[in-house]
Amino acid sequence: MMNPKKHRLSVYLDPDIMKALVEYAARRSQSRSLVAEAAIASFLSPDAAERQEAAMTKRLDQLDRRMARQERDLLISVEMLAVFVRFWLTANPPLPEPAQAAARAQAGQRYDAFVSALGRRLARGPKLLQEISEDIPGDQPAETKRSSGD
Fold it and tell me: Where is this region: Disordered (predicted)?
């Protein structure tokens, strides 16, 4: 039994899409027309929307996990800075007026040394965030947090 005659359709494809179609058809030893027909049929099938929704949901879940990691990393950075500033202010009393000029003179050198050390640390790793466990719940008592390597 012969299928009713197929209808001809002329379409214009972007060169990159045409190249991909030609390569795919050659790999499958199929005609370009058959591959294009199967792709259109798949696109128009009722479950195509479900597949697209599933793919979109998966992508959104990945983005959500990335955003959660970025939020965590930012919170760690802010807390680390706050702890450092508190410690520094506690451990370093204000300098007397005559010593402030000498401290200012050394500040540029010390800052350059800090930036160099930071650059070396970033280049070789491990990063601080890799050293901090993601498994520590936020409601843990302070003494438990300290005993876990703090």
Answer: 129-150
